[in-house]
Amino acid sequence: MEFEVGREYWNPTVETMKREEIRELQTKKMRMIVSHAYSNSRFYRDLWKEAGVTPEDVKTLDDLVQKAPLFRKDDVRDRMTEDDPFGGLLSVPMSHLIACFASTGTTGTPTFYAYTRDQAENMTIAETRIAWMVKLRPGMRYVIPGGSWHWHSVALYSAWRRISPRFYVAGMVAPITIQQTFDAIMKFKPHHVFAVLDVAFGLNEEARKRGIEPSELFSDLLYARTGHGEPMTQVLFDFFKKEWGIKDAFDGGGIGEGMMVCCDCYAHSGQHVWEDLWHIDLVDPDTDESVAFETGERGEYVVTNLHSMSIPYVRCASEDYSEIYPETCECGRTHMRMRITSRTGWILDIQGKRITPYDVRLAMEEHPETREAAFTIDKYAKKMDVLKIRASYNKKITKDPEELKERVQNTIKERLGVDAEITWVDYSQLPVMMHKILRITDLTKA
User: Fold this and answer.
1) 125-163 residue pLDDT tens
2) In CATH, which superfamily holds the domain spanning 348-445?
3) 32 Cβ neighbours under 8 A, 6+ residues apart
4) Which of these, 412, 443, 419, 441, lies nearest to 429 by C-alpha position?
5) What region, left, alpha or beta, does residue 139 occupy, with left being phi > 0 and alpha being psi -120 to 50 degrees?
């Protein structure tokens, strides 16, 4: 079945704003959120006073980047108590909140987020623009995560329903509910699906177990939105289009701290960030010094949420490496793009080299049998002599697992310059945290 794609933008006025208009709007909203945070949040008053900064010092976006102190998750965790699970960030009375959520805890103790009614609507607006950008259209059937188990799922559900009411809610769409999601897709035959990258791989694995080709599972599927947790690569874009027989796949992302979502468009040249709702800057994660906001520059991206009054996020460091692309996209959208590459805490010292799971993934993608890159790295010491990996492979096309192991280990040696030791495991034996495979299993904390 074909659907008319029609216009490119959900809100052309906002999505194609002139850069100077975006900056003016950001400046206005930034001043408001800075004043609100300082006046109502114990966390910000303490943080800014320690840095010797007041809201009067931050009048421009350059002031924000150069003067306002940044913070990370651990700064919030250090201030969390039984009486204050928000660590001093909550800036409105509890009675103003309509929902609270916990993070997945991927990088440590879960932190907490909250929505006011206005904030929930702003997040729905952001997600509606993205849904239209990834080709969701009226009349399409789709499968998405449901309920309020995650701050993102609430906005996602509301946004997609706003465009097309023909939905099917498939639990959490997480690795632990792969079988239910698979059954939902088989019976409902969606035209669009939202599945984080590890879930997408899990669906492929479930199809193989049942003796079904992925293209048969997704016989009516036209588009898919994936990513969210790990960046897509060109190999994966091509893989999903071929294996699932779809027109296109899109790479989504975001961060809990900052409550920011982003996604790429058909150009696949980076994930668009709606700059009327968020401000992004870059820093060197080792020094916290600002990095030039220029095309291709890489650093840890820092989020200032320009609409969250419940829990303001003013220069919240993401703990993610990202490349920045501020120029207008091929699609005509003027809002900046970024390409997330890895978490800053996922840098391993192996034989004196800095290695990330993303590096390993690129090596594994070179081989059809491990193209889905389902693996975890065992961190057994602060400095390691061997890269130890537990991984699964495509059993359907693998003739000799031992020969495959040698090939992949040789590729890692050639690409990364380190020795690798791979242990094959079943996909179900890989460690997961909610909807993500844990890319690093830290045995030093066991």
Assistant:
1) 999 999 999 999 999 998 887 666 677 878 888 899 899
2) ANL, C-terminal domain (3.30.300.30)
3) none
4) 441
5) left
Domain boundaries, the chain: 348-445
5: which 2 tokens? Answer: 């794609």
Angle at 427 between CA 425 and CA 428, to 5 degrees: 105
Q: Transcribe 73-123 into DSSP letters.
A: HHHHHTT--SS-TTTT---S-GGGEEEEEE---TTSS--EEEEEHHHHHHH
Number of Cβ within a 10 Å radius of residue 85: 16
Per-residue pLDDT tens over the stretch 421-439: 999 999 889 887 655 778 8
The encoded tokens of residue 369 equal: 């049998």
> Among positive and negative, which fits the CA dihedral 372, 258, 154, 326?
negative
Q: Which of 302, 412, 311, 407 is nearest to 356 (CA)?
A: 412
Phi and psi, residue 135, nearest 5°? 80, 20
What pTM was computed for the model? 0.86
Matching residue, tokens 């039984």? 82
Cα-based angle 166, 169, 171 (whole degrees, multiple of 5): 175
Tell me if 373 sits within 8 A of 404, measured CB to CB. no
